[in-house]
Amino acid sequence: MENDKTIKDTVKQQFAKNAEKYVTSESHAKADDLTLLLEWLNPQPDWVVLDIATGGGHVAKTLAPHVQSVFSTDLTRQMLENTAAHLKPHFHNIWYMVADAESLPFLDSTFDVVTCRLAPHHFPNPDQFVREAERVLKPKGKFLLIDNVAPSDPELADFMNTFEKLRDESHVRCLSIKEWRELFQSVGLREANSRTRKKTYDFPVWATRMANDSEQAECVKQFMKEGSQKLQQYFSVIMHEGQIQSLQVDEWMVLCEKSPSQDNPCSQRHSQED
Known about the structure:
The structure is a single chain. This protein is of the alpha/beta class. It is built from 13 helices and eight strands. It has helices at residues 4-17, 19-24, 26-29, 33-41, 58-63, 77-87, 126-136, 154-167, 177-187, 203-209, 214-225, 229-234, 265-273; strands at 48-52, 69-74, 94-98, 111-117, 137-149, 189-202, 238-240, 243-258. Helix 6 links the parallel strand 2 (69-74) and strand 3. The chain is globular and about 55 Å long.
């Protein structure tokens, strides 16, 4: 089992060399969830926002025109520098900071909104990430998460996390919706809205985006082709003349709200028991 440092070093190496791909990626830059998050959040001009693991900066770019300021953080300095180079000429209220999602360098109750999109499957300790997101939110603050999620069926979940790891060495694990909900409940984040959608990937583009070489991409293809009919049907694997054309994965978008009280339910119960 890899330790946290090894995992995070791999994440930094992978995203440093693929930084530009994430800025220009169509699936990251033009998905309809960016429009939907504006509807759900209804951003206000005095809000201060934290975008965790900003990647190509697509959430920061979407929210910046509607709020006072956005703090874009990422574990990978080269990714952040590349994103900043693209956004700084156009947005003057985005601030860029190298930061670990599991240990944020901010005081308690700092932000009106915390967002994180398509990144938590790279986090070795999603429970720590959720605790940190809740901690830095103001009372009644909003937390918006978007990520690929694993099916509840263990066989399907194992297949998904295996092909993701084969494709991208920095992948840790996609959680199920049930697992995410349990983490939110443990820190007192209340679910206010959510949706699940099937997201289609162009297989050749998806398989090579994070692969080190063509041999690695070929391994992903062979693994998926050898999957059972049940597995291929669930992930809608489309093949033509022996080549995989596309596949689908589940993506979950969820909006949570922090309790009006700064004390989480666990600490309240502890005080009452004392």
